[in-house]
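Quick question, first post here. What does this chain look like in 3D?
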Amino acid sequence: MAETVIIQRGLKKVGKKLFIEGDYVDLFIRIGASVINQEHQFKRIHSAVYDCDEFVWRGLLTKGKVISFTHADNRELPDPNVYNQISGPGMTFSGAEACADLSYKDALVCPVQGSDLIYNFIDGDSELSYVGKTGTHTIFVRVYDNNSGTDNDRWLVVSME
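> Answer (accepted):
Ran it through. C-alpha cells below.
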C-alpha cells in the first residue's frame, strides 16, 4: 500500500500521485479558452492561517495565457461591477510567486514596498495574465465580499506554489 504524505496545505501525496483534499466548489479557473469542467474546478479547504475557507486548484499554467476565475454560470470573480464605501473590486497577489507570475493589464496596480503583496484594483476592461514559466502550479484563492455580509465576490486574494 502506498504511503500518504501531506506535502503542503490542502495537498497530499499518495505514492507518486498528488491529490487535493476537500470538496468541489462553484469556483473555476479559465485558462485561455478552457471550458468549465472538473479539471478546472477548485476545492474548498480550511486555512489554518486565516481561519476561513480557502479554495485550491492544481494544474498546468501556460505562459502568456489570459486567466480568469468564474462560477459555473460564467459570473466573474472578482465581480468588476461591485463597489463598497471604501473601494472597488480587485485582487491581491500574495507571495513571491503570485507577484512574479501574475500580471494585470488595464488595472490600477499597487505593489506594497518591502512586501510580497500587490493590490490590483480592476474594472470591466482589466485582464489577468499568467506571465511565469509554463508548468504545473497550485493556486490558492480566498474570496472576500463587502463588509455588510453581502455575498458579491468583490475581492480575491491569490497565492501560488
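The helical segments are 96-101.
The first helix runs from residue 96 to 101.
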